[in-house]
Design brief:
The chain is α/β, with parallel strands linked by helices and 159 residues long. Helix content is 54%, strand content 11%. It is built from seven helices and four strands; from the N terminus they run E-H-E-H-H-E-E-H-H-H-H. A four-stranded mixed β-sheet has the order 1-2-4-3. Helix 6 crosses helix 7. It is globular.
């Protein structure tokens, strides 16, 4: 499955191609682990600082959702914020920097041991939005909550 990842036309960021590539890889990883195979989803990268109200009006959003992600199940669109992508990238860079600093003082720790079974913020955002698409419901709905719990269990048990 090759996800259809596009950049919101308002987003004027020189890093947009890196975001697009990174998100595409992350989507493939998450979808393969939970066996989600819908190819008709449009994934849109946006900047919440420049977001207009129009796409949000018809969307399913959680707490601070517009900062990280939201979706429009009727149009099969999932919006992922550059903040969610940056948070994932920054977390990985910080762990690498810590490991590099430890190497300088003669200690080595494998990053996989540090990150294994820890929460993966971008994966959680993707799982949340996929759950909205699958259930066509929102946070607090039993079907939504149970499906999200199942997706998270599957994803994190395969790390």
């Amino acid at each position: 499955m090759e996800p259809n990842v596009i950049i919101n036309e308002i987003l004027q960021n020189p890093l947009h191609e890196m975001y697009q590539s990174y998100l595409s890889k992350k989507i493939k990883i998450v979808c393969s682990k939970i066996k989600f195979e819908k190819n008709d989803i449009k994934w849109i990268i946006y900047d919440p600082k420049s977001l207009t109200a129009n796409p949000i009006e018809k969307s399913l959003i959680g707490t601070r959702g517009k900062d990280y992600g939201f979706c429009d199940p009727g149009n099969k669109e999932i919006y992922i914020s550059i903040l969610a992508i940056q948070g994932d990238l920054n977390g990985k860079n910080i762990l690498k920097q810590i490991n590099n600093n430890l190497n300088l003082i003669g200690k080595t720790y494998k990053l996989s041991g540090v990150t294994k079974n820890k929460r993966d913020f971008l994966a959680d955002v993707i799982l949340d939005e996929i759950t909205h698409i699958v259930t066509k419901s929102n946070h607090g709905d039993d079907e939504y909550d149970e499906t999200l719990e199942r997706f998270r269990y599957i994803y994190y048990s395969k790390l």
